[in-house]
Amino acid sequence: MRKPFIAGNWKMHTTISDAINLANGIKRELVDFNKADILLCPPFTALSSVSEVIMDTNIKLGAQNIAWEKEGAYTGEISSIMLKDCGCKFAIIGHSERRKYFGESDETVNRRIKAALLGGLTPIVCVGETLEERESDLTIKVITGQLEGGVGNLSEEEAKKIIIAYEPVWAIGTGKTAAPHQAQEIHEFIRGWISDKISSECARLLRILYGGSVKPANIRELMKEEDIDGGLVGGASLKVESFVEIVKNSI
Ligand code: 13P
């Protein structure tokens, strides 16, 4: 059995004090909850403060990106060493917003994944198709390319340490969730791909999260699907009540 995993991606929201309040609220409600893994991914500026709030709890901390080098002349980048220093154990990599607005490619995604693994952080690798790609029947082709380029060269040992998030771009921030069977179809494909390319053992262990308008009202149905192991939550992770309800409804 794969343990449910719910991650909140706060994106470019929250000042340090907002982040502390949000993390405190979540901690108050979920401090004794251990039936799902819970992850908070605040902006870089709030990592240290949120880390202090959730210290000594089962709630974990993640970053929204990671540099592919350990240090050096890379203005604006944040390395695995710095992230670990802030208390991070996870890093979201290849989010569609980074692909769309910041030139993230499968090659840079791959480099960031390698850096995260080398630095002892768990990469949460995002894949997903746009509406145009879905409507042109290109979903499987796009996901295959992202998997091939992003994780295709990982060893079995490396691949066992990653998490994959399927986030159809058309469902992000739009209120349009993929129907559970639509998401399941892609999750099943991803698990099958990992089984073929890496190993069946790795595929069996791999947690695949769904992201895109996850809410308290739809997480239960999504989690009923065989290959959906959790959620990567954007908007609904910015309110204590909705995030807590999503976590509680995920088991
Ligand atoms: P929403 O939950 O706001 O649709 O965002 C999903 C997402 O992009 C999480 O990474």
Q: What does this entry show, briefly?
A:
The protein is an alpha/beta fold and 251 residues long. Helix content is 43%, strand content 15%.
Key features of this structure:
about 250 residues; alpha/beta; TIM Barrel; eight-stranded parallel β-barrel; 12 helices; 8 strands; about 45% helix; about 15% strand; binds 1,3-dihydroxyacetonephosphate
The largest sheet, given as strand count, sense and whether it forms a barrel, is: 8 strands, parallel, barrel
Helical proportion?
40-55%
Number of strands: 8
Shape: globular
Please state the average pLDDT score. 97
- What strand order characterises the main sheet? 1-2-3-4-5-6-7-8
Distance between the termini: 12 Å
**Rg from alpha-carbon coordinates:** 17 Å
Q: Could you state the order of secondary-structure elements as H and E?
A: EHEHEHEHHEHHHEHHEHEH
CATH architecture: Alpha-Beta Barrel
CATH topology: TIM Barrel
- Ligands bound to this protein structure: 1,3-dihydroxyacetonephosphate
- Count helical runs: 12
Q: Oligomeric status of the shown chains?
A: single chain
CATH superfamily annotation:
Aldolase class I
Total number of domains: 1
In the CATH scheme, the class would be Alpha Beta
Structural class: alpha/beta
